[in-house]
What does this fold into?
Amino acid sequence: MSAREVSTPRLSAGARRRLVHAGLITTALAYVGLLVVAPLVGIAIAALKPGWSAWRAVFADPFARHAYLLTGIITLETVVVTAVLGVAVALVLARDRFHGRAIVSAFVDLPLAVSPVVVGLAAVLLFGTGGWFEAWFSARGVQVLYALPSMLLVTIFISIPFVIREVAPLLQELGTQEEEAARTLGASWPQTFFRVTLPNIRWGLLYGMALTTARALGEVGAVLIVSGTIAGQTETATLYILRAYDEGHDATMYIVALTLALVSIALLAGIEVFKRREEKELGT
Amino acid sequence: MSAPTLETERAPRPVDPGAALPARARSRAPWGRLGLRAVALLYLGVMVALPLAAVVAKGFGGGAASLREAFSELGARQALVLTIEMAAVVAVINAVFGTITAYVLTRYRFAGRRALATVVDIPFAIPTLVTGVMLVALYGPHSPIGGFLARHGVHVIFARLGILVALLFVTLPLVVRTVQPVMQELDLGEEEAAHVLGAGRWTTFRRVMLPHLRSGIVAGSLLAFARALGEFGAVVIVSGNILNKTLTAPVLIAQLITGFKPEAAAAIGTILFGLAFVLVLVVERLVGHREPAVPAS
It folds into this structure.
């Protein structure tokens, strides 16, 4: 340690510290700037260069409109399902103790690590020709694969962790005192849940829902495999981008991609607000 | 499906960590609690466990033979090697720069710190396919930067470098956001003591902070590794999917499925899934170890 200090005699300790300080900040800013900000600037320029008429053409395209609409529907349904059932799982993870709880917790995290392509494959194996459930559904005339149901299922799969991972630690931290008090005072469990538990976890829940929205909005790998990418029918916004790329419509690709990026960044702004509220409430 | 385990769990066990709850409250609504538990298990069982079981059953259905067959699939071995290689490099690079970023965010106050914190999260929000499109816009052959680099022999798009950049982008927040909370909880007093005793910043970091951060950094980079293994959207446009050169395992799986070879796809998918599963368990372990230590500060 002392040898290290002797080895740089020309700079005073304070000057050296300032140098390290500036160096580290510059490194972090340069890395994040090059990696994240530069591509954002790149796509903004690429999408704005073709001019207003190109934008009008994209939004006049019925396939593009349908793609946005479909993405919206899938995202909305995913957010509702993962929020409601996610809170139930979070309650179990935070409050309930049973054998295999650790495994349940690992299963919650799995969708973060499993490749979306594998998720799509799973849906094909379950609902495709010769799949486990194919006969049952086709006997009832329900088209799962290459239709909305399978697209919804894979999107829910990849979105499962977000609400649970935000709400479970909050529930753990809150403890059960307030709920106990409510129950002792004669509140039924729905009353306790909606009047006591839900208000306490609302910011974390909203944060998780915003993350879910961002994830569901941008899903491509799993949806690509199960949807069959039928333009105007099972083509989401991301699949529309992919088709524009394959067909060489660069301007269209950049424009739709930029709109999705802007929606995501708006969501991120919302996320930051929720996060800050949550921290503030926990801090007090 | 998990009904038998539920029944055996009815009576609260004495060693229960949740025993802090008054016994009265626990026994008052056993049906509500069991119902909730059943909903949670059913949800995760049907939505997560069942689909993955279908993949594993198909992938290992023929035992070792089906694996061997999958490896004989054109480009499969190279795709797996490339994917694991890329994921490892990405994990290491983001471990270093992610830790630096987390350090800067928690220990320094400077203009633009807020902005930096927000920008770090952007990859979480941006659709992965859009990430790929952004990189094509920036480094593609028609863009000024891409053209300039190409004239100097550096190819980003349709090359390994592009895959690398895309994966670095997608996994950037994972290390930062795993390490940062641990760093925030650290006792500043220890660092100050080290400083007063004459340790430089690097020595303080290495000897005082790093031992606390190690599990967080490892957990974060393992998450980045797992995420990079499975990434599809960011890679599919950027890599160009050239057989034996830039074709990654997830893209290969997608190609195999559309080529009606679900067995081979499932075998490779099982390998990816197995790796991801092990990594998640390890991360759970690492981060779980951390939590009890936190209230000490």
User: Anything to note?
Assistant: Residues 13-48 of chain A form the longest helix (36 residues). Chain A touches chain B through 99 residues (CB under 8 Å). The radius of gyration of chain A is 24 Å. The CA atoms of residues 21 and 27 of chain A lie 10 Å apart.
